[in-house]
Amino acid sequence: MKTGLVLEGGAMRGLFTAGVLDVFMEQGIEFAAACGISAGASFGCNIKSKQIGRTLRYNLKYSKDPRYGSLKNWLKTGDLFDAKFCYDTLPYELDPFDCETFESNPMDFYVGTTDVETGKCVYHKCTDGRREDIRWIQASASMPVVSKPVEIDGHAYLDGGISDSVPFAFMESIGFDRNVIVLTQPKGYRKHPGKHKTAMRVMLRKYPAVARAIEARPVMYNRQMVDIDQREKAGTALVIRPEESLGIGHTENDPAELQRVYDLGREVALKRLDEVKAYLNT
In this structure, what is the dihedral angle of CA atoms 57, 63, 66, 72, given to the nearest 10 degrees? Predict the structure, then answer.
């Protein structure tokens, strides 16, 4: 039996995941493969490059930088988060991503992103952490409406969470029948149907498959939560999640709030550490 790591998204709720992963790295806990969606991809990739603290560090340092995320960026470029700053200047100049370690680490790292033409999730295996992989990570984290689709090899992609919020089924499909799943919502959380369907259809009129996937997302997500609960009871999944709602917005830029959510991730990971080690050694 092979054990993998599955990382939910959730925008700045991903700082919780960053806290969990930093504890794993500090403790030498490793996996044969991982799959991240959205923030689970953009923050989670640091586990393969073995960069403890990097996610928190650059978020605290640049959270109030208008290039990192602002209404001005969105109105000017169509991207709330400046793509060049976030996926070029930051990882290659300001807080370098360790591509050499990423490439040499034998752990496979996958990201999921939504094809705008089909509304289906497409998975990409990142191999070296360089330009092409960064494009896939950017696509996985590109939230609809506030981000332009990311074009790769003639196809356009948006946030992977639209079509597969928690990619445990994908991991199972490639042979990982036991998984540690890191969620960013508490146990019992369920999504409710969106209140602005007409407005969403208008804003995404160029991408009707994406609009349909967003409308169907609550049903998909809630079904995934039931499936995960069943796997947890059966012992084929170990689930790490916040004990209560993190109470942080998608675009939160208050360093104190980012630190708080990160610390909660560390706290839960340390509390579950013996359980995680026992699960991995079973």
Answer: 140
Q: Which helix (H) or strand (E) holds 239?
A: strand 237-240
- Separation of alpha carbons 78 and 74, rounded Å: 4
3 state SS of 4: strand
Question: What residue has token string 């969606």?
Answer: 37
Please write the tens of the pLDDT for every residue from 256-274.
999 999 999 999 999 999 9
Read off the pLDDT of residues 76-122 as tens digits, 9 standing for 90 and up. 777 778 889 999 999 999 999 999 999 999 999 999 999 999 999 99
Between 202 and 97, whose confidence is greater?
Answer: 97
Q: Is 154 left (phi over 0), alpha (psi -120 to 50) or beta?
A: left
Give the Cα separation of 166 and 136 in Å (integer).
17
11: left (phi over 0), alpha (psi -120 to 50) or beta: left
Q: Are 199 and 22 in contact (CB under 8 A)?
A: no
